[in-house]
From TrEMBL:
Keywords per UniProt: NADP, Oxidoreductase
Homology family: Belongs to the short-chain dehydrogenases/reductases (SDR) family.
Name of this chain's protein: Contig An06c0120, genomic contig
Oxidoreductase found in the keyword field: yes
EC number(s) recorded for this UniProt protein: 1.1.1.245
CDD domains reported for this sequence: SDR_c (cd05233)
GO biological process: secondary metabolite biosynthetic process
Transmembrane parts of this sequence: none
Organism expressing this protein natively: Aspergillus niger (strain ATCC MYA-4892 / CBS 513.88 / FGSC A1513)
Amino acid sequence: MGKADIPLSLHDKVALVTGGGSGIGFAAALSLAQAGAKVVIADINETRGKASTLKISQLAHNVHFVPVGVSQSASVREMIDTTVRVYGRLDIAVNNAGIGPDSVAIANLDEGSWDRLIATNLTGVALCLKWELQQIIAQGGGHLHDTLRPHEGMAAYAATKHGILGLTRVAALENGKHGIRVNALTPGGIETELTSAYVKDPRFTAEMNARTSVFGRFAQPCEIAQVVVWLASESSSYITGSQYQLMVALGWPDNCEDSSWSHALVNSVAEPTGRSWDDG
């Protein structure tokens, strides 16, 4: 069977991954490259993004880094323009960049934190969709993918992520006629460098782990990335406007007396104004 005949092959496709410097984003970029795609890693952290680009370039050809601040329209547009300038087109976009929440109840909502989360997680995805769709519509088709994950005590964060789901579904409805598919992915607990540090925390017992997942463990970033590749491939050609929950249960324990550990598990630097849940 030739490479072009493999259903999951992304040979000669051009893929863009925001927040691609680490965590799920890095795993997605690597898996897309291994499936044959030309990959652009976009991240606000240039040091991290360039290092990840170098790692992937040693395993697969055609990978490029571009800095981006997804909350700024001009930066997002430049990201798309650079992608097209380097590789000639854009076929696949994984809108993964975002910042994490302050784990507080709605009654204690911090307005500044709310504004930062809305600007990055919701407006950021909307801006990415705007410029990506304009490019892909002009080309005649492609696939866009958004990530989201809400938790108790994270009102602003949950609002942005449910907003992303709404954007995903509307974008799918509006753009199916252009041959464009738009889907959302909801990952649960993911084992990154950051979460690994907290697995050693005495509060994170085997019982908690078992209640977090029916498998009694966190998912590996590569396991999430394989779903990204599948959604980007022709194997999912009739799927759009869908949300894929990869939590293998309810996600996080719902009655933990000290919920700070679940908040800490999902935080890492993504933008100067906050912390990212997936870029461990």
